[in-house]
Amino acid sequence: MTTGTRDGKGRFSRTVDTARRDAAAAALRARGRTFDQIAAELRFSGRAKAYEAVQRAYADIPYEGVEEARRLDLERIDRLIEYCTAVMEREHLTVNNGKVIRHFVGLETDADGIERLDPDGKPIPVFEDVLDDGPGMTAVREIRGLLERRAKMTGYDAPARSRVEFVTEDVIEAEIRKLEAQIGQAKD
């Protein structure tokens, strides 16, 4: 598929086919596809070219459409944050070779604190599942990345504006005279 033709200065210019392909890339992105998946499906040379196509398609959208796309992306980010938060808050068992890892915590006792015995007369061991913090920590990293992306999209991380005032000698002398006048009035 030809993505463009060269103009008189040797630069590529977009064709109708290129614009359609860019729009298809943006539609796939809106459905949650990764840039690698878009590149494979639309036969871009790599994820960077798929990203560029999506950006070109977004640039073609009238401003109102860009705001709608931004709103949809922010909603998607919010849903992903909700999902990752649920993963983070859930307990995860440690599994090794398909088996839940457990550790010994003591022997089973009755209400009076006396060890209970199995039918063979042996004490009954008590085990607890070993919890795995790995999935929760992965979810934390994902949430952090999503929050950073959200902050960039909304301008939340934009540098704060500050006002700089220069105090000159004249300003200081005027303030001193003002304070002296106030002191003089307070003495009267």
Please tell me about this protein's structure.
The chain has 188 residues and is mostly helical. The chain has 3 domains: 1-60, no CATH class; 73-91 and 133-164; 93-131, no CATH class. 55% of the residues lie in helices and 11% in strands. The chain has 6 helices and 6 strands. It has helices at residues 16-30, 35-42, 47-60, 63-89, 134-154, 169-187; strands spanning 4-6, 12-14, 95-96, 99-100, 102-107, 125-129. The protein has a two-stranded antiparallel ribbon. β1 (4-6) and β2 form a beta hairpin. α4 packs antiparallel against α5 (134-154).
Strand order of the largest sheet: 1-2
Oligomer: single chain
Percent strand = 5-15%
- What is the mean predicted local confidence, pLDDT? 87
What overall geometry do the principal axes of the alpha carbons give? flat
Number of domains: 3
The secondary-structure element order is: EEHHHHEEEEHH
> N- to C-terminal separation?
92 Å
Number of strands: 6
Given helix and strand content, the structural type is mainly alpha
- Unreliable residue stretches: none
Q: State the share of residues found in helices, binned by percent.
A: 55-70%
Radius of gyration: 33 Å
Largest sheet: 2 strands, antiparallel
Instruction: Figure out the total of helices.
Output: 6
